[in-house]
Design goal:
This is CDP-alcohol phosphatidyltransferase family protein. This protein is about 75% helix and about 0% strand. It has about 260 residues and is mostly helical. The chain has one domain: Four Helix Bundle (Hemerythrin (Met), subunit A) (Up-down Bundle), CATH 1.20.120. Helix 3 packs antiparallel against helix 5 (about 105-120) and helix 7 (about 135-160) packs across helix 8 (about 170-185). The longest helix has about 35 residues, at about 220-255. The protein is globular, with a radius of gyration of 19 Å. It starts with 8 loop residues before the first helix and ends with a helix.
């Protein structure tokens, strides 16, 4: 059962303590990765500033929406998602330092390994939430937004590394275009049922973009990989949009 209600004040104190402990631990992890990047790879101030900026934005949003978790414990699932969010902030910093990444094969492989780790942990959070009985709209949304931002960062990486044209940014922007469209078409704000197709398409996007980062993948091969993935994403969003609009009309018609 997914929790929707906000927690009470006494429970909120416990929840905030757990979240603060997690964020502090993730901050140490991120700082360690940043120091390693500066000391052992040709990454500099831009890498550090972007990574810290993204980290600050992500966890400020997490803290502000925390009371909607619906449980007194932060939970293992959100700890894993937070670790992934920390990795994504470092990945974002590395992506804007593409000249350094392109000039140093070790940096390219290091970026690829970090992306693979962040990707591999996706799904672990959902399993932990179900196992611990700590499923919530907050946790599901947190996981989804980390995935969406990772896709945006990876699609930007494909452009900046010269693997693909700007069209690939559609992969990363599709989620945010959908949110913007919902402000114009209220029907798109409706609730979607769970969908294996939606989860599979998300996994495909990340897997394809991750593979494109490999130094051995040429621009020509990247195009062959990215076009079907983008087509699948457009199809998935089209199906969801049509479902929401049809469902909204059905509800209006029954009144």
């Amino acid at each position: 059962m997914i929790a929707r209600a906000s927690v009470g004040y006494s429970e909120l104190d416990t929840l905030q303590l757990g979240a603060l402990t997690t964020i502090s631990a993730i901050a140490v992890m991120v700082l360690s990765l940043l120091i390693a990047g500066v000391l052992f790879l040709p990454l500099g101030a831009l890498f550090v500033c972007v990574a810290l900026g993204v980290f600050a934005v992500i966890f400020t949003l997490v803290w502000r929406t925390l009371r909607h978790h619906g449980h007194a414990r932060f939970g293992g699932a959100n700890i894993v998602t937070s670790a992934r969010a920390g990795m994504v902030s470092v990945i974002a910093g590395a992506v804007v330092s593409t000249e350094a990444i392109a000039s140093d094969p070790v940096s390219g492989w290091a970026l690829f390994c970090l992306v693979v780790l962040a990707f591999a942990l996706d799904g672990v959070d959902g399993y932990l939430a179900r196992r611990q009985g700590l499923q919530s709209d907050f946790g599901a949304r947190y996981d989804m937004e980390v995935d969406a931002f990772l896709i945006l960062v990876l699609s930007l990486a494909a452009v900046l590394m010269g693997k693909l044209g700007y069209w690939v940014l559609l992969m990363g922007l599709m989620r945010y275009v959908f949110i913007a469209a919902a402000e114009v078409l209220p029907a798109l704000k409706g609730e979607l049922p769970p969908s294996f197709r939606r989860k599979l398409v998300c996994v495909v996007q990340i897997a394809v973009l991750c593979a494109i980062l490999l130094p051995i993948v040429s621009p020509a091969i990247a195009v062959v990989m990215a076009v079907p993935a983008l087509a699948a994403l457009i199809y998935s969003f089209a199906v969801d949009s049509l479902y929401l609009q049809y469902h909204a009309k059905q509800v209006d018609g029954s009144r």
